[in-house]
Amino acid sequence: AQKITQTQPGMFVQEKEAVTLDCTYDTSDQSYGLFWYKQPSSGEMIFLIYQGSYDEQNATEGRYSLNFQKARKSANLVISASQLGDSAMYFCAMREGSFMEYGNKLVFGAGTILRVKS
Amino acid sequence: EAGVAQSPRYKIIEKRQSVAFWCNPISGHATLYWYQQILGQGPKLLIQFQNNGVVDDSQLPKDRFSAERLKGVDSTLKIQPAKLEDSAVYLCASSPRQGDYDEQYFGPGTRLTVT
Known about the structure:
Chain A is mainly beta. Chain A is about 5% helix and about 50% strand. Chain A contains 1 helix and 12 strands.
């Protein structure tokens, strides 16, 4: 079974609007971490936001927020006020178990390509 | 602060040849990762080092891939002999802390084409 599922291969959003990128995960561990990375056409992966499984509040970092619904095993990324520079591939990733058990081994989804229109 | 450096950026080889990639992590980062990213897919972890010891190499095809991290700093990843399916971008990443929230900083990658 897929550990990380990103069902949207591609998304379009109008500049200055908000967009939600979907991510569902599969794990039986109680302790895990969820990450979102951005990969522009240059190829470099850029960390955006992190949510721990025990965090009660949804994570936020500037224009990025993570809509964490533990019971549904979803960790959607919300980008507010989209900018042209947000056009990129976005990856959801999961670390299963705690760092002490498994190090920081990440499993990535297949990604969603986002295009921001002016 | 200088980022993760990788070289070469691009490499084209024929199948059955060998190739090596180099990575210099951010200064002071104890953990180093090598990922393989096939076109249209997310990165897949090949090997993780903590200082100069291997933490996880369960997805490294050890019959053809090898990696080392001398003195806990620079790392090299080698493929010998290469196959067509090894065509991918090879990403190196490093991280500073040892904890659940441990952001990984990625290099620009090496794009390998095997013909």
